[in-house]
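note to self — DONT lose this again. spent like an hour looking for the file last time. sequence + predicted structure for the chain T wanted, 119 res
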Amino acid sequence: MFLGSQENITFSEAQGRIFRMINAAPDLSFTEKSQLTSGVAQLGQYDVINLLRSLSGISGAAAGALIARYLLNKGLIGTVLGAIFGGTVAKSIFGSGPKNDLGQASMQGYDITGNKIYY
């Protein structure tokens, strides 16, 4: 995402851009997005503009991780970091579940417990 010149950006514009980056991250759940958004809402003007500058050229899950790290350094999150990294760890341990040919979550060919049905 090209952010353009940020020298004359206002607080509300910077905050709005960060909120849009959070909401556009496809790898973050709704809960993670709402927690990051509420953390950013607690930041002051100087911090929001600095955060936006540090997000230049970053999008998706990388933006979410950078925002979480920034909020952690400011002492504004605890549960946010736990939710983001907890979900990541759980996916790596248990997997993300069965997927169809398009890569979407699907239970076709599996029973209710997730075991493959052999025909």
